[in-house]
Amino acid sequence: MKDDQGTTPLQVAAYSLKEDLVKLLLKHGADPNLSDRKGVNSLIAAAIGCLKLTEELAEQRKRLDQYSANDEVVNELEDKNERASQRIKSVLNNMLPVIRDVNKTEEVSVTAKFRQF
Amino acid sequence: MVEYHNNSDTNFSNASVDDARKLFALPDNAGYTALHYAFLPELLTEAPEHNQYSYNRSMLVNGKEMWVKHVKQLMSKLPSLTSEHEHFYAQLMQVQGIDLNVKSQSEETALLLLCKSVSADVAATDLARRLLENGADPNITVGSCAIFTFFFGKI
Fold it and tell me: Which of A3, A9, A13, B42 has its CA 20 to 30 A from that of B126?
């Protein structure tokens, strides 16, 4: 049912780094190689999701450093970082074996943004 | 928002599977059907315990109550399809012929709504499993530009 413009549920789940949903969709035959009209496949969507999450966590860390947060708050952020790292690993580990072209690039400037980061 | 809740075309006293199918296929102004409402992320968020009763209470908000009432009323008249103790989602899936890939005006399927859902991973995954096991297409795409904003809004 590809309409060559759209986005798939797997791309959205990958972007949100929902590991269980990604696994489930792949198990039911979701194709991670499908790209939307901007050339974004599920792997790129996951990468964008990683970038977004990492940026958010870095921003939170920066704020904590600015305000000399107590240990409890810092530990909470460390836990968040750890969980985020696990989610990222899980999503990528599930996706990579079924991606045909890991070097595929999107047609918008997302890669440039990654390089800056 | 829902304009057809007073529609008397559906004869509940002679409810049949076919009636149920028709009712489930009725879209509201935004093109959402009963299936979409069942999986709307906002409603899931409002019912974190995610049991049948809290879920049903959540459905009875925002002017959707009459429409949902009609859906439930019809289902209650179909003994082969429903019982008091069955989970609402299980009932939904038992309506033969319901189109699990129906798109709203903004081209959202129930499966896509779940993937965008902010609800807990476990709840969303369980509902997605129900959809996929009953024939929802995992490779269906949405053509709307809204999703691109979703992806690239902050990039």
Answer: A3
